[in-house]
Write a structure and sequence with these properties.
Layout lengths: L2 H12 L10 E3 L7 E2 L6 E10 L10 H19 L2 E11 L4 H17 L4 E8 L3 E10 L13 E5 L4 H8 L19 H12 L5 H6 L6 E4 L4 H12 L2 E5 L7 H6 L2 H10 L6 E5 L4 H11 L3 E8 L4 E4 L5 E2 L14
Parallel strand pairs: 4-5, 9-12
Antiparallel strand pairs: 1-2, 3-6, 4-6, 7-10, 7-11, 8-10, 9-11, 12-13
Bound molecules: adenosine-5'-diphosphate and magnesium ion (MG).
């Protein structure tokens, strides 16, 4: 490692406010590997997300926001398995070393690292196209998988769906929902623009909710690729189908006010990047699930039910079946 690389790591990562210590960390940044001491019997969860410039975020976006979002989407995966965050590592490839960019990027990691007591403990850096890989580690006495849903379980979702893809469209960027999915951002109020900006760059990882429902929910997933695609993973893993009530989908006032109904539903079902949790629960535990969300001040909507069979049926308020292309967002297109 050259002296400059060493200095960069020291200044922007080892000395960063994101690299604080906690008792489990035996060694953080600076040794050949980070070392943690874990209590016997705990389940250790790992999750990694790679974010590619201009695929997962606009390359020219504010580096502080990029960092915040990169950590948020990783923490969201821990939320989905019900884990308490422990620490994270960061792999960065950068086309050139820009001190201002790096300083802002490392600052952008601090708020969520602090909020969830999840310090930066190591990583790697290399020259290359801008890519960000974060791996988070979490722990808990139990965990939630995708495969535990049962016939008749109720399906819930946190927060609102569809705002992130609307945000992308409002930034003037293409979305995978196609050319029809456009909005005139000049027509949005300043309040709506600010709301969408936050929805895209500062998704709220539902860590506390995930942790508290660990022994209540039967299955959970975070919605990164769109509700239909991600609920589809619960269906496949649990060998069940599902029914959704379109009128129950949680939509923000901003989304309702910006698009015709058909596109609102497409955004909510296929949009992706929501980082809300989709959860299944046995009917007898539904009240408990609802009161956990209530106590956290978290919006929680019952949107359907698991059923025997295959596929996800969507019904409108008149009970009519509606078809949506559930291929969701596939990073590699049609892989043979
Ligand atoms: P090695 O050559 O042993 O792989 P490196 O030179 O890559 O070590 O890194 C030295 C130390 O700095 C290690 O502890 C590593 O985890 C840490 N580190 C390197 N890059 C980053 C980064 N982007 N963020 C946080 N820590 C980093
Ligand atoms: Mg290395």
């Amino acid at each position: 490692m050259s002296q400059t690389e060493f200095q960069i790591i020291q200044q922007h990562f080892a000395d960063s406010e994101a690299a604080f210590s906690r008792p489990e960390i035996v060694r953080g940044i600076g040794d050949d590997a980070a070392m943690l001491r874990i209590e016997t019997g705990q389940i250790l969860s790992f999750s990694m997300d790679v974010l590619v410039a201009d695929v997962h975020f606009p390359a020219t976006a504010d580096p502080e926001l990029i960092a915040n979002r990169a950590l948020a989407v990783n923490l969201s995966d821990l939320a989905a398995v019900g884990a308490q965050p422990l620490c994270f590592t960061l792999g960065l490839t950068l086309p050139l070393v820009n001190e201002h960019w790096l300083a802002a990027f490392s600052q952008g990691l601090v708020p969520l690292a602090r909020q969830f007591n999840c310090p930066l403990v190591g990583g790697d850096m290399s020259r290359g196209p801008l890519n960000i890989a974060i791996q988070v580690q979490g722990q808990g006495e139990a965990a939630i998988g995708r495969d535990g849903a049962r016939d008749g379980d109720l399906i819930y979702v946190t927060g609102c769906l569809g705002d992130s893809v609307l945000a992308l469209a409002s930034f003037g960027l293409d979305t995978h929902l196609g050319g029809e999915f456009k909005i005139d951002s000049a027509a949005l109020s300043a309040q709506d623009r600010a709301y969408l900006h936050e929805a895209y760059y500062r998704p709220q990882p539902r860590i506390e909710f995930g942790r508290q429902i660990v022994n209540v929910a039967t299955a959970a997933i975070d919605i990164s690729d769109g509700l239909l695609g991600d609920l589809g993973h619960i269906c496949n893993a649990s060998a069940l189908g599902a029914e959704l009530e379109l009128s129950a989908l949680p939509l923000s006032d901003c989304l309702r006010g910006s698009l015709p109904e058909e596109l609102q539903q497409q955004a909510a079902l296929l949009g992706g990047d929501d980082y809300e949790l989709c959860v299944t629960v046995a009917p007898e535990n539904a009240t408990q699930l609802e009161s956990i969300a209530d106590d956290l001040g978290l919006r929680l909507s019952r949107i359907g039910r698991m059923r025997d069979g295959y596929g996800i049926d969507c019904r409108d308020s008149e009970g009519q079946m509606r078809e949506f292309d559930a291929s969701a967002y596939q990073h590699f297109g049609d892989v043979e």
